[in-house]
Amino acid sequence: MIDRSTAVIGAGPAGLAMAAELGRLGVDATVLEQSSALGASWRARYDRLRLNSSRWFSNLPGLRHERGEGPFPSRDQMVRYLEEYARANALDVRVNTRVERIDRDRGGWSLRTSAGDLSSEQVVVSSGYAHTPFIPDWPGRDSFDGQLLHAAAYRNPDAYRDRDVLVVGPGCSGMEIAYDLIEGGAGRVRLAVRTPPNILIRNPIGPLLARGMLKLGPRRADRIMSFVRRREIGDLTEYGLPEPEEGIFSRLMRLGVAPAIVDKEVIEAIKERRIEIVGGVESLDGAGVSLSDGTRIEPEAVIAATGYRTGLEPVVGHLGVLDERGVPQPPTGDEAAPGLRFIGYLPRPAHIGLIAREATYAAKAIAAAR
């Protein structure tokens, strides 16, 4: 017999918002979380992490961030917010329950989990597009004698004092970790860049401006943001970060790649050459790293801020609902198959605020179908 409740996979912002909105509509929901606590991905991030979007644009349905948090909540403030959200909405969160596979089953879905098999009429997958850390398969990667880790395993600069560190990837995490290292006493910090990023300065009203830009269309929005970059950041070509030919919104729409959103202090550290920009990583060997500009360096540690994958292939890859990058289609709350939805997989400005709207939309659709 198929359980008429809804199974929600993942106890991050998307899963918690989904369950809360279903509850408000009288639909029972069970949240299945593979880790030992909700908000696990937030708990595991580096110490100085803050939201890129201000708290006014990062509320889940029914609960605002506390006023005293400042404009950009920290990692720990975000964890406390998620814990309070689950308590306030009396959510049924089952931790240590890893969903391993989802299959169609007699008008509903069967879920194979680490805690036993479950069945449900409706399933919402919300485990996040930044789920599984990804390190490129660089030639010689396994032979590198230094320390190699993904940014997901980085916490703070204490272990890197006086050391030579290469950070790979100029996104938000890569640039912020590079700055954290140099401020924390690392001996030398280089940032490997293969594709120059679009860069924005963190701004409390940034999400509001971005929403307005999206309405203009990518080409017009790109031109405006190029002007903003020149005024706020200046020309970084001589430091190794020329402005990309493809603008912020064109790249976002084509590849789902968000700009690097950083504080002005990071840009100043690059201009002061405290953070050195170098070419992309081509290969590793026992003692060093070969770069795309033909140079070879010998860092003591390599931190790969090279992104994440959804990790959904083992769970739903056989259902034909993923694109070539492993991103579910559609990614924003519409049915991918009867009774199967995905939310939180579309990277956009003020992502948590977008997740809240997706959850409200999907919950209403599920309730209406009962």
Question: What does this protein structure show overall?
Answer:
By secondary structure, the protein is of the alpha/beta class. Helix content is 29%, strand content 22%. It folds into two domains: 6-131 and 310-368, 3-Layer(bba) Sandwich (FAD/NAD(P)-binding domain); 135-304, 3-Layer(bba) Sandwich (FAD/NAD(P)-binding domain), CATH 3.50.50.60. The protein has helices at 13-24, 40-43, 75-88, 172-183, 206-216, 218-232, 248-255, 264-271, 313-316, 351-368, and strands spanning 6-9, 29-32, 92-94, 99-105, 108-113, 116-120, 122-125, 132-133, 147-150, 164-168, 188-193, 199-201, 260-262, 275-279, 281-284, 289-291, 296-297, 301-304, 308-309, 335-337, 340-342. Strand 16 (289-291) and strand 17 (296-297) form a beta hairpin. The radius of gyration is 21 Å and the shape is globular. The chain starts with 5 loop residues before the first strand and ends with a helix. The mean pLDDT is 94.
Largest beta sheet, briefly? 6 strands, mixed
- Which architecture of the largest domain per CATH? 3-Layer(bba) Sandwich
What does the radius of gyration come to?
Answer: 21 Å
Distance between the termini: 16 Å
How much beta, percentage-wise?
Answer: 15-25%
Fraction of residues in H or I helices:
25-40%
Number of domains: 2
Shape: globular
The strand line-up of the biggest sheet is 3-2-1-7-21-20
Q: Determine the mean pLDDT.
A: 94
Uncertain stretches of 5 or more adjacent residues: none
Say what the CATH topology of the largest domain is: FAD/NAD(P)-binding domain
Number of strands: 21
Counted by DSSP, the helix tally is 10
Structural class: alpha/beta
**CATH class category of the largest domain:** Alpha Beta
CATH homolog superfamily of the largest domain? FAD/NAD(P)-binding domain
